[in-house]
Each structure stands twice: as C-alpha cells, then as structure tokens.
Specification:
Distance between the termini: 42 Å
Order of helices and strands: HHH
Number of strands: 0
Largest sheet: none
Number of helices: 3
Structural class: mainly alpha
Helix content: over 70%
Strand content: under 5%
Amino acid sequence: FKELDIWISDINFSIEECDYLAKIASNKVKDSVLRDEFLEMIHQSMDLLSNLQSFRNATENLSECTDLECDLVFLNEHEEIRLLYLNHLKKYRSLKKKAFTVLLK
C-alpha cells in the first residue's frame, strides 16, 4: 500500500507540474505543440491515476491471502501496475527534459 500511495502522490504532483509546464510552453515559449504534449501527458496521467486508485481500493478490500495462488495473482497485478507507472514516468521525464531543452535555447 505504501508503494501505491507513493505512486499516486507522484502522479498527482506530475499533473500539477504538467499544468505549469503547459502554461510556460504556451505563454512564455509560445510553443503550442509542446503545450499540447503536456496537456496530453496530463490526460495520460489522470488515466493512470484512476487505474492506481482503483487498484489501491480493490487491494485494500482484500483479506490476506491464504495460499500461494492468491498471492501470485496479487503480485502479478501489482507488477503490471508498477510497469505502467514506470513506463509513464519514463515518458513524462523525457517530455520534461524536452521542455527544459526548449527553455534553455
């Protein structure tokens, strides 16, 4: 649960940060394409956030597993969510790096 809570917190922060970066791209850099990329990233982040929260809520209601099969199902689902989170984070960091490069020009 702690790991999921951290991921949810990270995604919430990235949504807020994307909003600022979209505004910078639009108002300061005058780059509508970069702005749109951040707006799309916000949309993707919100989708992931919804998935994370749903998974968090679903797992919160589970009683402890009593057998290995149950544990494996939970672990497999957790791993799938973790990979979604990590892939999203990679894309977000790449976009943010692109924005910083534009700002430094």
